Amino acid sequence: MNNKPNFSNLLKCKGLKVTKHRNSVLEVIESSNRPVTAEDIYIILKQKDISINLSSIYRILDTLVANSLINKFIFEETNKTCYEMNDMQHKHYLICNGCKKVFPISGCPLHAYESQLEDTLDFTITNHKLEIYGYCKDCKKK
Ligand SMILES: [Zn+2]
Ligand SMILES: [Zn+2]
């Protein structure tokens, strides 16, 4: 037996059919500690000997996004579409200019600043975007 996380309930919960590939894609996204691209998922599944083509992965990702199981977002700078589990948390990211990896950071430093702006400028803020660029630990060494 294996102790892999089982996403069947999550899928059933949304009224989606449970398939091996949907489970595998969710498992890759869940076990990654950073947002992944469809290509990342493809490579990881291939290493696990799971045969699936890239267009099927995109189809699965679209379904999962449409059912709010995962989030999809595009980083403007790198123009890469990334996916992560939808844990309903407001997050920001560090993006490495070298290897283009994306690192989630917890917490948001802007909420206090937002309320200050709302007060002083009489502006109602609905959301914001913040991406921080630089070089990761590995790329700094190079
Ligand atoms: Zn890097
Ligand atoms: Zn924020």
From TrEMBL:
The keyword Transcription applies. SUPFAM superfamilies: Winged helix' DNA-binding domain. Keywords: DNA-binding, Repressor, Transcription, Transcription regulation, Zinc. The keyword Aminoacyl-tRNA synthetase does not apply. Pfam families: FUR. CDD domains: Fur_like (cd07153). InterPro entries: FUR, Fur_C, WH-like_DNA-bd_sf, WH_DNA-bd_sf. Belongs to the Fur family. This is Transcriptional repressor. It comes from Clostridium hominis. The lineage of its organism: Bacteria, Bacillati, Bacillota, Clostridia, Eubacteriales.
